Amino acid sequence: MNVLLADDDPTMRLLLGKVLEQCGHHVVKAASDGQEAWDFFEGAPQPMVILDWEMPVLNGLDVCRNIRASPYGDQTFILIVTSRDRTEDLTAVLDAGADDYMSKPVTPDNLQARLRIAERRIAVSAARLRAEDELRKAQYLAGIGETSLALQHEINNPLAAMLSHASLIEAGMVEGEERADSFATIVQQARRIGEVVKRLRQLDKPKSVEYLGQSRMIDIAPKPDSTAK
Fold it and tell me: With 90 as the cut, is the pLDDT of residue 215 above it?
């Protein structure tokens, strides 16, 4: 897992980096202040960020808030490291949006335990995002199917009438008044199809209705005129 690390103490950066590497993670950036960390995250969001609370320019909580407000902020696990250990300090960390909190002095065992928590949380989050993506795809495909069925239902009959009369004209099987009637029918059915397309374009909140008891389709039937007396 890629990790963005920020601490103004070089020794702490070295310690955290070594433990992360031993646990199989990769430190993509070891920033020396909060602004450097935030600038890096803006350009390259990472799945995990470890922040010292007290840093120059931007402190860890400020960076945490910035990350949470960013487009990818909800997909990042944030661990705050600090020497503060009062109850109100923990509250402040959680209020800033951090996922976890670790007190100094940091030990390798303590950090490894926190990393296991982070790995599980990130795995669960990734699984949730995949499930949500699959659901969106399924809903999209279902919508396509329902729209296609609705168009078939609304357009097939007028289209069949148009083609039938066009075939009669093309074959020379209608003359005079009958030919004029066929042309009128073609125009009428073309306008009917145009109205279907117009209703589809004007749909605001599409509703799904049953079709033949098993399938479902988007309801694009003409609505009653509320102004009609």
Answer: no
155-195 residue pLDDT tens: 777 888 888 888 888 888 888 888 888 888 888 888 888 77
| Closest C-alpha among 223, 224, 220, 225 to residue 155 | 220
HSE-CB of 65 using CA atoms within 13 angstroms: 10
CB atoms closer than 10 angstroms to residue 133: 10
Q: What is the distance between the alpha carbons of residues 63 and 54, in angstroms, rounded to a whole number?
A: 11
Q: Which of 93, 99, 92, 50 is nearest to 74 (CA)?
A: 99
User: What is the chain's alpha carbon radius of gyration, rounded to the nearest angstrom?
Assistant: 32
Domain ranges for the chain: 2-106, 134-218
Residue 114, exposed/middle/buried by CB under 10 A (0-12, 13-18, 19+)? buried
Phi, psi of 100 (to 5 degrees): -150, 170
Strands 77-82 and 100-103, bridge-based pairing: parallel
pLDDT at residue 29 tops 60: yes
CA atoms lying within 13 Å on the CB side of residue 23:
23
**Fold of the domain spanning 2-106:** Rossmann fold (3.40.50)
pTM: 0.57
Residue 174, burial from CB neighbour count under 10 angstroms (0-12, 13-18, 19+): middle
**How far is it, in rounded angstroms, from Cα 59 to Cα 71?**
21
